[in-house]
Amino acid sequence: MDFEKKLGRLEEIVQKMERGDLALEDSLKLFEEGVKLSRECQTRLTEAEAQVKKLVGFDSSGAPVTENFQGDED
User: Fold this and answer.
1) CB neighbours (10 Å) of residue 12?
2) C-alpha 27: how far from its chain's center?
3) Cα–Cα distance between 23 and 5 in angstroms, integer?
């Protein structure tokens, strides 16, 4: 399942649980599935973040110069 489908399923689980009309056993199953999906999505986001590069300029031959992007730069 790709990232977008996992995220969609996670949103579906949250909506079902927020309604509050599920049996305890069903709630627990959905909670477990949600935790698993959340971890998988977080892992994918971390991997994607590691691949992001920031363009810092061009060298004398016109080739792009990049560096690893560091989020939350202040």
Assistant:
1) 13
2) 23
3) 25
Determine phi and psi for 67, rounding to 5 degrees.
Answer: -140, 160
Q: How many CB atoms lie within 10 A of CB 6?
A: 16
User: How far are the Cα atoms of 26, 43, 54, 69 from residue 73, in angstroms, in the given order?
Assistant: 42, 21, 12, 9
pLDDT in tens, 3-53: 999 999 999 999 999 999 999 999 999 999 999 999 999 999 988 877 767
Give the model's pLDDT for residue 11: 97
Cα-based torsion angle of the residue sequence 32, 30, 39, 41 in order, rounded to the nearest 10 degrees? 160
